[in-house]
Amino acid sequence: MRAAVLTGPQALSIAMVPVPRPGSGEVLIRLEGCGVCASNVEPWEGQPWSSWPGQPGGMGHEGWGVIAALGEGVEGLAVGQRVTALTERSYAEFDVAPAAMVVPLPAALDGRPVPGEPVACAMNIFARSDLRSGQTVVIVGIGFLGAILTRLASDAGARVIAVSRRAETLALARAMGAAETIPMDDHWRIIEDVKRLTGGRMAERVIECVGRQWPLDLAGELVAEGGRLVIAGYHQDGPRQVNMQMWNWKGIDIASAHERDAGVRVAGLRAAVDALASGRLDLTPLLTGRYPLDDLGQALADTRDKPGAFVKGWVAL
User: Fold this and answer.
1) Where do the Enoyl reductase (ER) domain residues begin and end (predicted)?
2) For domain 2-115+283-316, is the CATH number 3.30.1380.10?
């Protein structure tokens, strides 16, 4: 099979490697596609702890496709069934997943790209936010994740204030249900804008979706006393500092909303599939770039640089 291999900083090659075999309790998936996650950008650019070459298909974890083979003992799944899964090497034509991490796709999603894993992340982050109808939530950073959270929060009856860097993503946030939008260009003006929009109370919930120091600093400023700061951004490029004096004074709850429990993750994946199949969520305006596997490097560059109205790319396999 063809598989992408990271061979150095911003260097990828396409290798011919053996198709993996499913072991006991595993499923072999002939992949149709894999979403490109922003968390791939730092490894692709090269981190001090990086080593090369990477695993064939490595970094790809948002795959979907058709079951090609079942390992011993797998029940409830069938060859030919279309599925999405939690895997780790899906920048390739095939990948293997534990059967417990595979979720069938209903006919309502036939013919559509279904990067289930990032939608599952959004569902689990939303659950951790403990959002209630009538609350104000500020979402800092509107990309794929922030846009979905905007839709979920607005549908739940919250008033969403979206903060984002690009005019295109502010327009997207409004389309997804945001009541107010604020350009993310001036720290103190943003604080004053949220203060004005909330009558000085600030927001009961703030969800940070960027994964950088300044947006985290900003998010802490925007939380109301007794509110909750939900950290959804993936902070993987080094340590962070926080204003603990302010956090203590406000008495806020902090939720680092990255789930690691396998049962919680697959429950989020099932919830994601249900939301997509029912029409509660529509990925059409969010999947803005389709790339062949040979152009994975360009997909990662676009994920970093976000040209024009770019939101999220995916690799067609």
Assistant:
1) 8-300
2) no
